[in-house]
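JOB MANIFEST
job_type = single_chain_structure
chain_count = 1
residues = 429
[input]
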Amino acid sequence: MTATATSTPPPAAPKVSGGKGGRTRLSFPVILLIIAGALVALSAVRAITGAEDLTSAGQINAALSMAVPIGLAGLGGLWAERAGVVNIGLEGMMILGTFFGAWAGWQTSPWLGVLAGVLGGMAGGLLHAVATVTFGVDHIISGIAINILAVGFTTYFAKLWFNSGEAAAKGGSPKQSPPAEEITSVTVPGLSDWLVSIEKHHWFFVSDLAGILGGLVTNLSLLTIVAVGLFFGTFLVLWKTSFGLRLRSCGENPIASESLGVNVYKYKYIAVIVSGGMAGLGGAFLSLVTSHIYNEGQTGGRGYIGLAAMIFGNWRPGGLAMGAGLFGFSDALQLRAGGQSVHALLLLLAVVLVALGVWKVYRKRYPTAAISLVVAAGVFVWYSLTDTVPTEFVSATPYVVTLLVLSLSAQRLRMPKADGMRYRKGQGK
């Protein structure tokens, strides 16, 4: 088995977090302080620029609805990559979820549509697992192939199923399905109205906090609550159970895991199929909650953005949730014609870049500091000479944010050691 010796890295001694060679993990109080600081910064930007929609309940509610599919796609990627399988096919699995969710949703009930979307995504995950785990196909090639197949499959069957008979009579076409019924939404009575009344006063920080909380308790889809539960469930399963420990060991060192009696193939299959189901649920959310219909091209690259959110979150559910919230917030700006809000965020971006430049000077990384300060000056000039930003730039905001976040967070990332590497059964013997 000498040919497979380079496929998987040899066992390595674990690093102790917080040591000289390790990486300090942020504690919960520190995370809260970071969140509070970000809220204060947003409040200051809102007060200075007058962009009242920046922290409004409507903006936050829209951001939450945009963050859920991104977060679910990222959660799918987390399951697969923690087991050592790179899942670039998340976009295709989301596409299958949108299609099957809408197809079953308009014919039966939206909750059966959710189940169909999950099963559609799981089918894509199973295909990816067969290709990568059983046959050893390169993970990137397999994922791209699934994305292409998903587009072709849904395009063909949308023309076949939605463009004739009862479906066409109810509003179907070659590019969209008939509308499905709405999934129940809930609002916390009393609390929602009270928060809205505080938000209207436009007090510094207090009204902003009320707007954010109001967006989280107003017109909240039940499927959103399910998605939040899946984040907590994933953390408990992967980090607090023996099953999760075995699954994560397959992504760190499958040879050592197999030598200890772990069925590596089984855990990789489970992880990738669950990954597809999560992505399919994200797709079903888009077609059953966000728009109530399937539309061709509906995912809009959210599978890739979910993968970026997972990387930003350092392959952990908490960081992934924050990344999905950030990307969802930027994605919601284009839905609400947020030219003024994006223009206000230019000021915040300039301040962040200046702070980053000062930090790099302190660390004596002068070339990086110079780049940060020059870009900050350019952004500030742009903000000063304009009153809004073009619609085209607003539409591109989620992708710009994705690139900025990944470029700024790349140095602190630590992926599973065997992520993306081929593994053949028997290497541990």
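[summary]
The chain is about 70% helix and 0% strand.
Strands lie at 185-186, 220-221.
exit_status = 0
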